[in-house]
Amino acid sequence: MKISEQEVRYVAELANLKLTDEELGRMASELDKILTHMDKLNELDTSAVEPMAQVLYEAGETATLRDDVERTPLGEEAALANAPLSGAGHFKVPRVIER
Predict the structure, then answer these.
(1) C-alpha distances in angstroms, 51 versus 38, 46, 68, 93?
(2) E strand segments, the chain
(3) Domains of the chain with bracketed CATH
(4) What's the whole-model pTM score?
(5) Cα-flanking dihedrals φ and ψ of residue 47, to 5°?
(6) Per-residue b or e along 27-66, where b marks 16 or more CB atoms closer than 10 Å to that residue's CB
(7) Per-residue pLDDT tens over the stretch 29-76
(8) Cα–Cα distances in Å, from 80 out to 46, 47, 65, 71, 96?
């Protein structure tokens, strides 16, 4: 097994998730299967495979990205104008983490 229930418990705690013992076992099993599959994929020789798609590419006339034009930045007052609650130049939000 590539990942233990203790490791799953640790990651769940970091993510502030409360998992039952049944869920811990299932997650450990599923993550183990994923990691095993990744190991199989890593064995493949992809050195001669050309990339099929890129996020940014030379597209010429079909490019959908606009030119990068310098603009005046949005001021603090304008940025906070629609905030339900703000103060001292910051957005104020309710506390969501208790620890």
Answers:
(1) 19, 10, 26, 43
(2) 86-87, 90-91
(3) 5-42 (1.10.20)
(4) 0.50
(5) -65, -30
(6) bbeebeeeeeeeeeeeeeeeeeeeeeeeeeeeeeeeeeee
(7) 999 999 999 999 999 999 998 877 666 556 666 666 777 899 999 999
(8) 49, 50, 28, 19, 21
